[in-house]
Design brief:
The chain is an alpha+beta fold and about 190 residues long. Helices cover about 30% and strands about 30% of the residues.
Length: about 190
């Protein structure tokens, strides 16, 4: 810094401040944005309206007017559940019995997808998941026979079940009962 003139030194500090600010804003956005989005998804007005805390909720089918999700797919029916493992495991069961596509995806509190089960993987068998926290608490005692243990990387998160329907009006009698087989409950 000895060889810099006063104006050069001033510009150096301005650029350094700008770079440090840019890095901090970037890191904050990358870390905070997913967590904020998930908090609104799991605890916001829509979640409270659907009462989906540790229980399944079944939003209305997507139409051309639906905009609660950006660019929603009218070919999919959704079922949701916001889970909280603070008081122990959550049991998730579903038995869609469909020939077409369906999936269950679990997301942690920072929006990372950590588990997926779909129709091909299930091979016509019911899904029975025992969702536990990664804190190392003892959960081995009450695991139901045949349940698959899934470790969540966070104490809270979100489940999204998707069921494909090419023509909801014609397939409603088949796909609605299938998606409503989803059950999320405290263990």
């Amino acid at each position: 810094m000895k060889n810099f003139t006063t104006p050069q030194r001033l510009w150096f500090y301005r650029i350094l401040t700008l770079l440090v600010t840019a890095v901090l804003v970037h890191l904050l956005a990358v870390w905070a944005a997913p967590r904020l989005i998930m908090q609104v998804l799991m605890h916001g007005p829509m979640a409270q309206k659907m009462n989906m805390q540790n229980q399944a909720a079944f939003p209305e089918p997507v139409t051309a007017r639906s905009r609660s999700v950006v660019m929603p797919s009218p070919d999919l029916l959704y079922s949701v559940c916001a889970y909280d493992l603070s008081d122990g495991p959550v049991r998730i069961t579903a038995n869609p019995q469909l020939q077409n596509y369906w999936s269950i995806a679990l997301y942690s509190a920072n929006s990372d997808n950590f588990f997926v089960r779909n129709d091909r993987q299930a091979q016509g068998k019911p899904v029975d998941l025992w969702l536990v926290s990664d804190t190392g608490e003892s959960y081995q005692k009450n695991i139901p026979s045949g349940a698959e243990v899934v470790v969540s990387p966070s104490r809270s998160g979100f489940l999204l079940m998707r069921v494909l329907t090419t023509d909801y009006a014609k397939e409603q009698a088949l796909v609605e009962p299938a998606r409503r087989t989803l059950v999320c409950s405290k263990a």
